[in-house]
Amino acid sequence: VQLVESGGGLVQPGGSLRLSCAASGFTFSDTWMHWVRQAPGKGLEWVSSIYTGDGDTNSADSVKGRFTISGVNTKNVLYLQMNSLKSEDTALYYCAARVVGGTWYWGQGTQVTVSS
């Protein structure tokens, strides 16, 4: 299993970014996929999840209305569209997969910094 995130960077408050996660080694189209973040000096915070089998999604209240999770099963890619970014969204963003059998896999993370 391999998860490779990309798309992070420096953005001004109010700006947008789209994170990508390229997945391989498991059945992407039948998996719960997740975005989780870790702000400097803080613990892991769940951001959003999608079941790629039917597109069912859940998001944390802190990002609802601003972030959108999606997946393209034909490309094995997970996305996180982030709009109206705030300084408190600054974090290392991880892509994670809970595959059949319950094992979790994580990517290496992509840094998002929101600052003027």
What would you note in describing this structure?
The strands form 2 sheets. Strands 2, 4, 5, 6, 9, 10 and 11 form a 7-stranded mixed β-sheet that branches. A 4-stranded antiparallel β-sheet has the order 1-3-8-7, with no helix packed on it. Helices cover 0% and strands 54% of the residues. Strand 7 and strand 8 form a beta hairpin. It contains no helices and 11 strands. It is mostly beta strands.
| Order of helical and strand elements | EEEEEEEEEEE
User: Helix proportion of residues, in percent?
Assistant: under 10%
* Assembly state of the chains shown: single chain
Form type = globular
Low-confidence stretches: none
The percent range for strand residues is over 45%
Question: Ends: how far apart?
Answer: 37 Å
**Major sheet summary line:** 7 strands, mixed
The tally of helices reads: 0
Number of strands: 11
Structural class estimated from helices and strands: mainly beta
Rg, nearest Å: 13 Å
Estimate the mean pLDDT confidence. Answer: 96
Key words describing this protein structure:
seven-stranded mixed beta sheet, mainly beta, 116 residues, 54% strand, four-stranded antiparallel beta sheet
Helices and strands in order, then pairings?
Layout: E1 2-6, E2 9-11, E3 17-24, E4 32-38, E5 44-51, E6 56-59, E7 67-72, E8 77-82, E9 91-98, E10 104-106, E11 110-114
Parallel strand pairs: 2-11
Antiparallel strand pairs: 1-3, 3-8, 4-5, 4-9, 5-6, 7-8, 9-10, 9-11
